[in-house]
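Progress narrative, work stream C.
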Amino acid sequence: MKGEGKVFLKTRMKWIGLLGLVLSALSLLVHFLLAGFTDDSISDYSIPVTIFSWRPVFDNPRFTRQTPLYRRLWGPTRHVEPLFPDANPRGYHSDPPARTNGFVFVRIQGGFHEIRNSIPDVVAVSRLLNATLVIPEIQSTTSSKGISSQFKSFAYLYNEEHFMASIAKDVRVVKTLPKNLKWARRKKQIPSFKVSYGSSPYYYLHHVLPVLIKHSVVELVVPNGGCLQATLPRDLEEYQRLRCRVAFHALQFRKEVQELSTKVLQRLVSSGPVLRPLGRPFIAYDPGMTREALAYHGCAELFQDVHTELIQHKRAWMIKRGIVKGKLSVDSAEQRLAGLCPLMPEEVGILLRAYGYSWDTIIYVAGGEVFGGQRTLIPLHGMFENVVDRTSLSTGWELARMYGREAKHKDIKQMTPPSVEEDTKQDSLKSTRQRPQPLPPPPARPKYYNIEGWWGWVAESDNEPENTVIELRTNAHKLLWEAIDYVVSVEADVFIPGFDRDGKGHPSFASLVMGHRLYQSASAKTFRPDRKQTAMLLEEIRDHMYEANHTWIASVRKLLKRSILEGLIESSKRSKGFSFLSHPVPECSCIKRDHRVSNASIIEADLGVTHRCPQWKDGVVIERSKDNNKNAEKEEDLDEEDLSSSGLFFGHKESGGSSNGNNETVNSEANNKEEGQLEDQEELEGAER
């Protein structure tokens, strides 16, 4: 019996081992199949636990919001709390007629911010002309080859159905031209207008409208990120509110982009022990350092390396085409001191640390391309432990799922060394030649693409080479990357731009974000630092940048404190003339009915908002501001100074100012006040205004 038992046990173990081998083989096969799908960028595979690269590091895992320090760093701007969005028509607003003057077909060129700035203009122009709008064509996607066939042109970035439904009471919209007009367009038999940036209503009514009535169709080419002037006459104010309805309500990203943007935002704000609103707040930072912007404004010498050559080559190209009117060689130091160059990431980090943000503050780097790549961001990483971007908060397969099913192109040939036979053949040909042969022209140096966001090239000629298939596809992907950054930046607790102008001198990605934040939540903290004053302050400590004294820190805090409100007032004069969406106030805002008298002068006199919010909004308005008004009087008498930020203020181990919330924190702050308090009078002045 014992022998039979041993045989049975051995047989059973053999079967178990065989079953294990079979299961292992099946597991390997499944993994190989999934890997193949992922390589082709068509992965639909998902797992319950998402693994991404960011691992947050905090000095104190506990984070509370009931402290004066928190209100100073993250709290709302009380002076504009009564300001609320209101883009609804304020008078008689007729529906679009069933019979229009014809069709308007639009081709929009440029990047993300140019597309987003152009679409509201196109809708307003269509209503002005009493025309039927064909869904605009986005050139960055139609010119790209190999991108997903699931999403084309407008639908690659935005939700077509939502867009059409949202503006149905303003403009008639169709997806395509009728067959006869579509054929005429392919034959280039329809009239076309290449409209300039900020064209006037007079231009459309006296030049475009007669042609539209005659031919029943016109094509508008929008190359510069806007086709209607920013400021309109008083009698056309409803068209401004139409722009707001399009930009802030109708333009919704397509489902896949919106879902990934929401995931990135959730992972960002849930870094604390619990989800928002009790999780940790974060700062969104847009460097604004694109090659075009640096070239346009003459900021090449900020880098002092090969990047300078890349920028100067681009500036020469822009001068040749009339985009830049100045000289090729510009003193970048003078441009920087005049506030015409972007703030470097290192400089922004110093400003934020001086203002009181601790080393474990979460900073999200937005805005797409950062010229110079991750190397430019190294000083910012050295000052803040939790510097992240969309790549830190998403996985490759999630991005691939957002791109859709894409064809695989092998346009990058792998360079292999020549064989021995080829070398011998070349040597024999050289020896048999009787006289030297002319050499072929040297090829242009190749382009280089870096996944961190930098691309650049230096060519042997003045002309830039044509984009490859991979580069055209990447340009389309950049639209989706910036869409994610846009959503995160609008929802951020704090936003700070490094620059707010693009490569044509027009408002950039950062300007649109600040305009959206002003419309959606005017009291959300948005820094608009004066770059000229900032450059002067930074020059004072250029030789000892990481050992600033109390006086300098107080000056920085005054500068940033003023930039929140005074920068907003200044942008109404400076930015609005270029882009309405960068400052959609007062046309698209209202004041709540129970606002305090102390805030009325700023909102009404400086911002020009006099329209009272509808009565149905009063309940929402009161609920939103109840908690903030509870502590308003207390804040006016508090010196909300972060005492930990003084002297050598870049160390990781900070005093109790960064440990918000418990009894130990209160005692630590009290001890710091006894040792020495940095008095910031601007905090008190700002509270008393």
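Work stream C, second folded protein:
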Amino acid sequence: MYSDRSLATLLRALQNGSDEQDVSRLLGPATTLLTLLSNPLNVTLLTSQLLSARSIWERPDGLRTTIRILSIFNSTAIQFVRQEESAVPSSNLSTRSTLSREEWAIAVIKGADERSPRWRHLCVLAGLLVGFEGRRERNLSHSLRRTLESATVKAVNLALQEGEASNDFAANSMAIILSYVFDLLSDGEKMSLNDDLLLPILVQASFFTKEGLHSGYFLSTIDADVVQSAERKFDWSARSSTYMQCQRMATGPMVASLGSLSRLIAFSAENVQDVDLLFTMVKDLSTFTRSLCVQWRQNKLSEIDITEEAMYLSERTLRMTLPLLWRTLKSTMFATVIVLRSLLGRVLEDARIPVDGAIDILSQYPVQTEAFLQDIRPTSAGSIPQHPLDRCHDLYFLNTAEHFTVVLSPELNEQLLIGAATPYLGLGSDPRLLEIFEAAHSVMLALLSAPQNSDLLARHIHPYVDALFKVFPQNLSLRQFRMAIKTLIRITSPPAPISESQPMLPSTLLELVRFRLEAASPKLLQAQTTSDASPKAAEQSLFSEQSVLLLTLIDALPFLPIDQLEDWLPLTAEALNTIQDANQLQICRQRLWDVISKGEMDVDRSALCVTWWGTGGGRETVLYGRDQQEEGPFMSGGLQETSKL
């Protein structure tokens, strides 16, 4: 009787509620009452009223209203399970419903009727699914579980077909609720979703609406609250309106669920039937990222390189406000990557989609490749831009263009790639430019190695070698230096076209290495601050500049022409005598042995190495050193002095 009177009071209050505060006070009692009602008709009535009451839905508080209604049914479902598992004594039955969990669930489902739009039915259906089954537990019978899943998918499809998603609030609510429940649906039900209608709704809700990322407009508004403090550092206060706005957005349902939303978008992209929708999605994402970059550029924070944050930002900003912004942007990046990864899979599998858009496929289409690189080329090629965002763009261009050096004509390689890479080749000492520095060297090696670029190689190899020696060992890691010299020896040796006009170029390069070796320091190199992982930095500290240069000579031996190899084998062996550290000497000896004996040489070069090792003095020079060999001549059969007193 008490619950009946409470129900009547609650229903009148829901019908007469005048403001958001009144409604919020009523939702708590609604949750309690749902656990007490024992008449299934009353459960159905209350559910129907919660989904249709004008006091709730006429002036909703965005997605928070949707989540509150969903939480009512989610919380009640969890409470039903706990009550049944706790075996409440019969004397306490008056404090709980006498309905079983399945009787109660069926009564609730019946409340999702024609009095409310179909998209609101998702609040009930998803709330029950998450409440009963969301903890990887089986609390419903198989038949009821399937009924809930089927009803959820049917509600989504009908809402889409009947145009209910034309309202932003409805579309956002559908997107967020479906992301909550998607992993609980069976594969068969997932495939029943109308992805052609669903995909545009999901993309719009996640990236463009005010509940979502709002095209990145929040970034430019932050600028007004970034002010210079007394310590001459920039400060973004946690009390500022823009920080509070950013905090509300980051903790709001849509942005907090970007991970699950992006997986849902990815699923729809993989299964959409109308491939034109995929092109529309790509355009939408391109529009979003362009807007995001424009808004970020209008923010003072974008002018500060990540390596300079401690220098220019206040401690409070570094500790409190900036991390929230980075987390939001990082979530945005991951969400975009997840969506684009699914699109790439669709491109590779679907014959209906033109295959001239993915990077590995694009290289088969030179015209499209050129147009793409022209579109993303740096705006200030030939110079280093001051703005960190522009330098980021340069890094993206260099990392991407490296894959297309074989496709482009020599003219475009020189115009686009060399022009973009050259300013960064000698700037590894600047920590802000380290990643771009490494990317620029990778591009140069890839470009000079391309078979159509023999004329470019002849013109640019000497300046590039000068740049290499200027930045090693202070800024270029031993691994990168060894790889660079080895690559240059390989592409200048026969049958490379340049070997006809400059046959001694490989020896000239190695002579530069040997000349540098004579004056190199035997001290161990300091672990370098690079973007490499820590094991590579640790490797750097195991060698001296001297030993790295010697290893570079050894690495190049398999690529030398045979006539030049015959000259460089004894020169390399003699260079071993310059290494004083026993550990480094052993490493260099072992590397030389590996090169000449373990398959890195072809047949002719291997035969030459065998002759040199056996009868050409190679063994003695490598193992004992030239200075330790006894001087002759000796009489045949004569005894050598073996010790001195």
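Confidence is low (pLDDT under 50) at residues 528-538, 629-645. No further action is required on this item.
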